[in-house]
Amino acid sequence: MQLHNMLRFKTAWAEAAGPSHEVVLSTRVRLARNLRGPFPGHLGPHTLKKTLDHAFYAIKLAGIKNAAFFKMGDLDATDREFLVERHLASPVLAAHPASRGVVVGDDETIVVMVNEEDHFRLAALLPGQQLHAAHAAVDRLDDRLSSVLDFAFRDDLGYLTACPTNLGTGMRASCLVHLPALTMTSGIDRVMEGVARAGLIARGLHGEGTKVVGDFFQLSNATGFGRTEGEILAALEKTVGAVVAREMEAREGLSNGAAKVRLEDSVHRSIALLGAARLIPFEECQHHLSRLRLGLSLGWRLGADLAVVNELTLSTQPAHLDLLAQKVLSPLDRDALRASLVRRRLKAS
Amino acid sequence: MICQNCGAREATVLVQTVLHNHVKKAALCGSCAEGLHAEAELDALTEAIAALGARVRHQTARCANCRTSFANFKESGRFGCPSCYEHFLPQVKDLLPRVHAGAYQHRGKTPGRR
């Protein structure tokens, strides 16, 4: 459990900032890049390790502000899971740690995964809807890395990747959106079907059954080949904008007339529970934080702020709590620590 | 709810994808959902590969660089190295429009050119 210090670090992408941050929690743009040799899945342990060392050296030359270099093989399971919860490593990287690595920099807004399915997965993460700024940041990093590395590329096919579905720009752009009002008014299914028909992929975070706990959805482009980066970003921006507008309409509907007192009741019940519970399971915590987040984003004075709610959305995840306690907790102890953390943070804010 | 894919772990992610105008939903655990995009695309990829059918010749030939065969690719959905794309170029060119909404030519960034 070496990453305990990271709990104190700023997670800039989870701040309550950036355009449309009342609905769009964060934006991520990643690029898949490969060297000209065999892809990581085809490398033996020795070559995989050499590739990791070579990649770390190149990333140092490219220069990432305040970069921290992690070899996944040097981290224990809690640390690796923590990086996944923090959106800094993929579950694949955590599950196969040998000679895999992650470089995190610039207040956790820049991440490079090494030896995932592709040699490099560069990503920029920013708060709010900042598709163009995130793309610009990751594009600059790509340029700097390209000056020291020879990435596999063909004029007709673009950047070459292990899976042909990532071919071309190698770009996957996504927005993490909070849609509690659409979920409460059952408008979510229609909106999600529209999103899917627009050629985007939608996934719920922290879902259970057909209900998505915490009301967070990730919207991303399905393909990155045959269109320019600008075209892909514009299409995603348009759809995300439409989803935000629908969510705002639903919020408006819920906070007026007879519906308002029901929503107030629901939000205040959540606040009461978060402020009093001694044991909170993860799903329940996410559910009530989502309600609180909705109330705050409607501008209600609730004695808390969005920044704290965003922080708690991250810090109440299992591996975050284990790191805080510096040991692998039992489910009961974890629920108790989660409840005490939430009470303390909400009281302080 | 238990993950609909592995049937072992707790489902934590709801995945929704569209394939040929049909919306598909699944509750998955973190590990299974990890390959979410890959999974959704792999479905499309597998279908596209199957659609190539008899047009795929030289299935026994292997990439000279990494020794990946087209059968290996069909099984995993992954090529072994960048040279595979040259070795299997006719198949790749058949495959791409099916996987990438009709596209057959890269139009994005080119390294070293603005």
DSSP summary: helix tally of chain B: 5
* Stretches with pLDDT under 50, minimum 5 residues of chain A: none
Could you estimate the helical fraction of the residues of chain A in percent?
Answer: 40-55%
Number of alpha- plus pi-helical segments of chain A: 12
Largest sheet of chain A: 8 strands, antiparallel
Distance between the termini of chain B: 49 Å
Instruction: Indicate the structural class of chain B.
Output: alpha+beta
Distance between the termini of chain A: 28 Å
Q: Biggest interface and which pair forms it?
A: A-B, 62 and 56 residues
CA radius of gyration of chain A is 21 Å
Tell me roughly what share of residues is in helical segments of chain B.
25-40%
Report the count of strand segments of chain B. 2
Give me the count of strands of chain A.
12
Order of helices and strands of chain B: EEHHHHH
Low-confidence stretches of chain B: none
Oligomer: heterodimer
Could you say which overall geometry of chain B the principal axes of the C-alpha atoms support?
A: extended
Describe the protein in words.
The complex is a heterodimer of chains A (349) and B (114). Chain A is α+β, with helices and mostly antiparallel strands. In chain A, 46% of the residues lie in helices and 17% in strands. Chain A has helices at residues 45-62, 77-85, 91-95, 131-146, 180-184, 188-197, 229-254, 257-276, 282-297, 306-315, 318-325, 331-348; strands spanning 24-33, 68-71, 101-105, 110-114, 120-127, 153-154, 158-159, 171-178, 200-204, 207-208, 211-212, 216-221. In chain A, the strands form three sheets. In chain A, strands 2-3-4-5-1-8-12-9 form an eight-stranded antiparallel beta sheet, with helices on one face. In chain A, strands 6-7 form a two-stranded antiparallel ribbon. Chain A has a two-stranded antiparallel ribbon with strand order 10-11. In chain A, helix 2 (77-85) crosses helix 11 (318-325) and helix 8 crosses helix 9 (282-297). The mean pLDDT of chain A is 93. By secondary structure, chain B is of the alpha+beta class. Chain B is built from five helices and two strands. Chain B has a two-stranded antiparallel ribbon. Chain B is extended. The interface between A and B is large, with 62 and 56 residues. Strand 9 of chain A pairs antiparallel with strand 1 of chain B, so a sheet runs across the interface.
